[in-house]
Amino acid sequence: MKIDVLTLFPTMFTGVLQESILKRAQEKGAVTFQLVNFREFADNKHQTVDDYPYGGGAGMVLKPQPIFDAVDHLTKQSEHRPRIILLCPQGERYTQKKAEELAKEQHLIFICGHYEGYDERIREHVVTDEISIGDYVLTGGELAAMVVIDSVVRLLPGVLGNEHSSVHDSYSSGLLEHPHYTRPADFRGMKVPDVLLSGNHRLIEEWRQKESLRRTWLRRPDLLETYELTEQQKKWIEQWEKNER
Fold it and tell me: Which architecture does CATH list for 2-154?
């Protein structure tokens, strides 16, 4: 996969892209990154990329020209039609399902804005996807782009040490992930559930499924609104609801 990032602050990405999973992914050849300062595409001698909004109002708005020209430049270099992603509060709320969708692409271009916002023509004529990582406001799109990039790259084949890791992550199955434990089995009187020490893989898997569902039911019941429950899962929930009465 090829990932291009349009940003006014490329050095913000340096540490993130050179550590942990993202570094490993590059070393394995699973992904390449290019950081592009779109100020370099401004067509004025002062390399201005923003201007005052028509109609008045607070803040500055990113001009269309530098973004259009930068995207045109990157698109012409690409062997594949890229997905062009705008990070913004008005975008669709980011989910694991979206990460899995983007992980199937060959080329992603992220546009990281700053200031008050983007000229609307960027949204209408350049962008294929608008993404928001939550209902809050950030200074710019860089941190949001890092979140999306990390969640996508870890899904690429061969990136994670255990190919099953991403499959069993929270949200990948539609439910939150079950609890995890490691050594020691008894830490300050806090003991690991007996079933995990039993060696009975069938019972362990059943416990994990049940705890995954229970955690989702307690913490994110909204996820169950679109989740297709099995008959056994329905019985578990009925029992928990009964116990709460």
Answer: 3-Layer(aba) Sandwich (3.40)
